[in-house]
Fold this sequence. Notes:
Elements: H1 2-18, E1 23-29, H2 36-47, E2 52-58, E3 63-69, H3 75-84, H4 96-101
Antiparallel strand pairs: 1-3, 2-3
Amino acid sequence: xxxxxxxxxxxxxxxxxxxxxxxxxxxxxxxxxxxxxxxxxxxxxxxxxxxxxxxxxxxxxxxxxxxxxxxxxxxxxxxxxxxxxxxxxxxxxxxxxxxxxxxxxxxxxxxxxxxxxxxxxxxxxxxx
Length: 128
């Protein structure tokens, strides 16, 4: 009887060990997500995706960090979801219609938006 219980327990533990879901991490460049509103929009939308475990948009660096379950989604689906919101995601360009619907403050500076390109710092003149 002990052998049967022991072998059932071992089989159950090995089944649990082999059925664990693999979680991948990825960093996606989102260069035109540059404000708190962009961060909120992307995080809200992506958190609803099946298989996404973690989302963090760092708008100061222009990147989005994600963790996802590989059996439910993949990195290309995540990039496409970001592009469908109107933002560039690595090599996937933003959906043009979605980009047009973004608030003016979330558009690129060259399109009349509120995100100017950062200027290189001007070196201070030495005191004489």
